[in-house]
Amino acid sequence: MKKRIILFYEYFYYNFVRDSIALDVEILKEYSIRSIEDIETLDLNCIVERDGEVYIGFAVYNRKMKVKLLQTILSCGINKNYLLDIYKAYMAGYSKNRFQRVMNRKLNQKLDGLVLGISHGMVGIVEGKMPGKVCNLCYSSQDIYFNYLTLKKCYEQYYYEIKDLKYVVIDMFDYFYFNFDTILSGAFDSFFEASGFLCEERSPWNKVQSVQQINEILIDIWQEGKTAWEQKLFSEFFPYARERDRGVYKENIVYDTRLADSEILKFKSSPKVPELESKIFHHTIQFQVDNMVKLFLLLKKIQPQIRIFLVLLPKYKVVEDVEKSLNRTWKTFFMNIIGELKKDFSFELLDFKDYEEISAHKENYRDLTHLGPDGAARFTEHLSDLLIHQYGLDALF
């Protein structure tokens, strides 16, 4: 008798579900969701009217969407024993620490380069198009401190892989990157859940929960999907997930979205300025400058001859044009910090924010600020060419 399941998944998990599901599983209904609004408009008669042993499987990365979906499903009277968190059950087979998940792909391989930074570098710099063997450790909302912490953990746990590094590229996000602290931002919870790092005290503290409360929640989250019955269900319904290993665990998920004209028009009619641009957080700036120094010192300790490149990736030109006036002040501020750092460290700053060969073309972007797959390939090819020919990396290989 076939096992039966109703599926809910964020749209970019479609291939994973199709490639890993068991041959004896019948999909009664499936829903591809992109937003909380999609969940609010779901027709769930198939759950209400189900009969017999029908399981509900869901692969949802976004926690707010997941919570909303679970509330909706449970309101239909489903027994929790028939629920399978596909994403969490899959991830339970890997380390909770993202840097380990990324680095383990390169285990026992000597790396030539590392990429550190934030989401712009994560989706905008393609490992395979960089010079030599490279590992991209960028992640969404990863500030300078967490870049340093990531490198420190790699130094402690993956010294063989990084001891002969020839270069590092650091995605600097924007001229106000020193003004950003992950823990004090609104993106801290999703960053911690995926990164595997615990929260730490910051001053001034701006969260409703204490550090202890946040960490208790995180520890509970990291246990999701690990129970014996969840793993049994997962292995029965998705036996090929580990074997094929793609889709859910893919560090640079290839979204099928492209920058839409409506998104551009909306921004033009009502430009939104990030709080990081409109406010100066002096304590954060000093904290992050200190961490950049620590980062440089650790890189030099790993490999004294390492070449360091700080990179500013281009947002879509419409956004760059709007932010230019604000960035006059921030750019001066940023360049002053860079000038001070250059007194003690050797590195290159590569500023592509006016690089219109990329930024002027909508097809290069997945949204207003992040490069899409095609744009990332084009940008990385250009960056790689510069590193090799203009900055002499070819002499290191």
The fraction of residues in strands falls at 5-15%
Helix count, per DSSP?
A: 19
Distance between the termini: 59 Å
The secondary-structure element order is: EHEHHEHEHHEHEHHEHHHHHHHEHEHH
Instruction: Outline the biggest β-sheet.
Output: 5 strands, parallel
Kindly report the spatial arrangement of strands forming the biggest sheet. 6-5-7-8-9
How many β strands by DSSP? 9
> Which percent range fits the helix content?
40-55%
Structure classification: alpha/beta
What is the averaged pLDDT score? Answer: 92
User: What is the overall shape?
Assistant: globular
**Gyration radius, to the nearest Å?**
22 Å
Low confidence ranges? none
Question: What is the element layout, followed by pairings?
Answer:
Blueprint lengths: L2 E8 L3 H7 L4 E9 L2 H5 L4 H4 L5 E6 L3 H12 L8 E3 H6 L6 H6 L9 E4 L2 H6 L9 E3 L7 H14 L1 H4 L4 E5 L16 H8 L15 H12 L5 H10 L3 H4 L16 H9 L5 H4 L3 H21 L4 E6 L4 H26 L5 E4 L4 H4 L13 H18 L7
Parallel strand pairs: 1-2, 1-3, 3-4, 5-6, 5-7, 7-8, 8-9
Helix pairs in contact: 8-16
Model description:
With 397 residues, the chain is an alpha/beta fold. Helix content is 45%, strand content 12%. Strand 8, helix 17 (317-342) and strand 9 (348-351) form a beta-alpha-beta unit. Helix 8 (144-157) runs parallel beside helix 16 (282-302). It is globular, with a radius of gyration of 22 Å. The relative contact order is 0.14. The mean pLDDT is 92.
